[in-house]
Each structure stands twice: as C-alpha cells, then as structure tokens.
Specification:
The strands form three sheets. A four-stranded antiparallel beta sheet has the order 1-10-9-8, sandwiched between helices. Strands 2-3-7 form a three-stranded antiparallel beta sheet, with no helix packed on it. It starts with a helix and ends in a 26-residue tail after the last strand. It is mainly beta. The protein folds into two domains: 2-62 and 160-224, Antithrombin, Chain I, domain 2; 76-156, Alpha-1-antitrypsin, domain 1 (Roll), CATH 2.30.39.10. 12% of the residues lie in helices and 36% in strands.
Length: 250
C-alpha cells in the first residue's frame, strides 16, 4: 500500500459498494477535480463489482500571453448542422511562434505560464474529421514551430464536457488483454479471476481569456469471472483401495 501512496499519490479504501458509503468514490473524484467532475459512477453501476480503480486529474493554468478581455466580441460561429450561433470570440492579433500546419489542418499553439503544457487548437480542412488528423503521422506537425509567422488568432471562449465508456477505445490502443478472462492479470488485487469489465470516463475543458481549466475522472470497473465448476466422472467398477487418515497427524 505504501507504494501506492508514496509513488502514485494513491490510496486504498475498503468499501461496500451496495451501501451508501460507496458515494465516497464520487466525493474523492470531486475533491481531486476541484468540483469539476462531481460524479464518476452511479450506485447502480458499481453495486455488483468486487473492486474499482479510480483516477482523476485537474489543471488550472494561465496563458503565457492571455487574451485581452476588451478584445472579445460577439461573432457568428457555424455549427456542424450549418446553423450559426453568436459566441464570445477572443482575439490576439500578434502571436509569434504559435502558428502550425499539417496536410489537412492549420493550428495555433498556446503556451501556459510556468508550465510545459501547450494547448493546440486545430482548424481542419472542410470534409476532414478529427480522427483523420489525430494520427501518429500528423501529430508531429504540431510541434514544428513556424518562427517567421505572426498569427492573428480568433477563437471562441468555450467549455466542453464529455463522457464516454472507454472499453473499445482502450482495446484498440492495445489494452485488450486487461478486459479479457483468461488473460488479464490482476492477481496483486487478491484474485486470479479479476478483469476490467468497463472503463468510465468524464472530462471538462474550459478556455477563456485568462487560460484553461481542465479536469478528468475515470473509473475502471473490476469484475470477477464466475468460473464454471470443472466436472469429472468416477465409476467404481473395478478393484479400488481404501485409506483412513487422521487429518491432525497426516
């Protein structure tokens, strides 16, 4: 347990998931995300699981070059449906070293003060979806600085909340064995029959003139494989032996 606490800043708690005390999971995630992810799992979703692994992350960072509040003006934003919506559009007209481009996108790289984090905003070519751009081939282009370009950037002030079940995505990324029995090895948790049944995920990304708030929580539902009893057949139809034993002195 000390390795979880000292190395991973984690803790281990014993809970009865069928009791109201299981709400401690949501309380922990809410505390770690400063209230941005108030709930990660419902009572129904965890009632029958033998174990749960939860993690959370929270970021609040100020841009290295914040947008000026007075430069923000209402502008039309075209939705995927073709409809237009008025949004608060932030603007910086003289950003050096922020411009990026690839085969199917242009992008802005916004750095944060006192941090190695970078926010990349990608403007995709029409007809191109994000899955086509966020590939191992395209992503390196985001890190190529176009030093001679001064960027005039307009971007909406926005907040995004997203939730998903990550089982299929993680299997696609190579974690398939963790969701399989036999195959998964969570024996360190006390049983050879444990595997991940589902992975729940919730995120928040909020961007304004000052910077960014980001939070995420995830919960891995650990399940116990219900093993079918192995069947054997004995037919005493030939000579056999009998042994009587004292179990205390065997």
């Amino acid at each position: 347990m000390w390795k979880c606490q000292d190395i991973d800043d984690a803790s281990v708690t014993s809970l009865n998931f069928k009791q109201p005390s299981a709400a401690a999971i949501n309380k922990w995630v809410a505390e770690k995300t400063s209230g941005q992810i108030p709930e990660i799992a419902t009572a129904e979703s965890i009632a029958d699981v033998p174990a749960l692994i939860a993690n959370a992350i929270y970021l609040k960072a100020r841009f290295l070059h914040p947008f000026r509040q007075e430069a923000t003006q209402p502008k039309d934003f075209s939705l995927a449906s073709g409809r237009k919506k008025s949004v608060p559009m932030m603007r910086q007209s003289e950003l050096s070293g922020a411009y990026r481009f690839g085969k199917t996108f242009e992008a802005a790289a916004l750095h944060y003060a006192d941090s190695t984090f970078v926010l990349f905003l990608l403007l995709l070519e029409k007809g191109v979806n994000a899955e086509e751009v966020l590939t191992e081939e395209s992503l390196p282009d985001l890190f190529v600085e176009r030093g001679s370009v001064e960027l005039d950037l307009s971007v909406p002030r926005f907040a995004i909340r997203f939730s998903s079940q990550l089982k299929e995505s993680l299997k696609h990324m190579g974690m398939g064995i963790a969701f399989e029995y036999p195959g998964a090895d969570f024996s360190a948790m006390g049983s050879q029959s444990l595997f991940i049944g589902e992975m729940l995920h919730k995120t928040l990304l909020q961007v304004d003139e000052e910077g960014t708030i980001a939070a995420a929580g995830a919960a891995a539902m650990i399940e116990l494989c219900a093993l079918m009893p192995q069947q054997e057949t004995l037919v005493f139809d030939r000579p056999f032996a009998v042994v009587m034993m004292d179990s205390a002195t065997r």
